[in-house]
Amino acid sequence: MTLRAIFLAAAVSAVSASLATAQTHDNPFRFGTTLSGFGGLTGDSGGVAPATGLELGWEMTHLVTVEGTTIWSVPGTGQQDFGVTIGPRFNLAHNRRRVPFVAAGVGMYRASFDRLTGQVPSFYADRLQPADRVDTHRTFDDFVLSVGGGAEFFIHDHWAVRPDVRLMTVFSGSDVRWITAFGGHLAYHFDRRHLTD
């Protein structure tokens, strides 16, 4: 694991620890914490794969949340992808049972390959040096940006389902890999919502 990936994981963990203590009932700034699990699919030029992940959010206001997001998928035989991003989510309404939103994030994306059981896509294979081709296991860490949107549907004052779609852009110099993630979250809001229809 590279130093960048370790640093990003430590930063998300530090934010997570501070979020756990920021509860709306005790905080005059009305900060709140959300935790959600994700299930869905990722797709790129190579096809579609199942994906899962976790998301931890800090509700700075009812309209702005800072979220740390992870996503894990297995896009091909011998390949595993893992991404970590952090960024804002902007709610387009508040105190409603249906809340549309847009979101963005920045972070790191790791792709790992076992060349004995699968092929390395050209986005990664083109970066291999002749000496690297001897190794059967290769890992690539790249910068990623994501944008997306969806809607949150509250089924309870604390619980919500959140279908969404995100477009992730993985950068390697001037080359990019486009990945679409779509699916749904089951989210728990630690602060109680006073909702109107």
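(ticket continues) Second input and output from the same batch:
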Amino acid sequence: MSAAPGLPDPVEPGIAPSPRDTAPTAGSVLVLPARVYREILAACLDGYPLGACGLLIGEVETSERAQVRDTHVATNEAASARVYTVAPRDMLRADREAEEAGLVLLGVWHSHTHTDAYPSPTDVAQAPDPDWHYVLVSLRDSEPVLRSYRIRDGHSEEEAVVLQ
């Protein structure tokens, strides 16, 4: 399977080793369909030079494994390259979409336009739900890099991302 023109192949993608040279530590797994992966990357690239954001919709399979089914691209109300704020109306729409489909909001994604795909102190401080998955896309290098974290009690732990 190949990606849309200009996007990394989802089978050998920009899911890269940690810039901190550590393997995922959370023990949890986020399963991400290739279609959703491509939609997230496209939205991040379309939003550049500002940060892009959106919500993950899916189902919790276990406390340590979640299956993403869809994404809802949101407006970054901060209109900034450094921070993001999901528009409240987009949060409400995504929550309704999830509920109508018998799914839940699993988390949020956003781009880092000039830094690694690693939670910033602001990301950690503003993480609203310890059960959520926080997907970050770095646009710093020539290829986007997507990584996911669990942020709990002020600490972020990388989790494995499995593309399907």
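Agent notes: The beta strands are 29-32, 53-62, 65-74, 104-112, 133-138, 145-152, 155-163. The chain has one domain: 29-163. Closing as not reproducible unless the customer responds.
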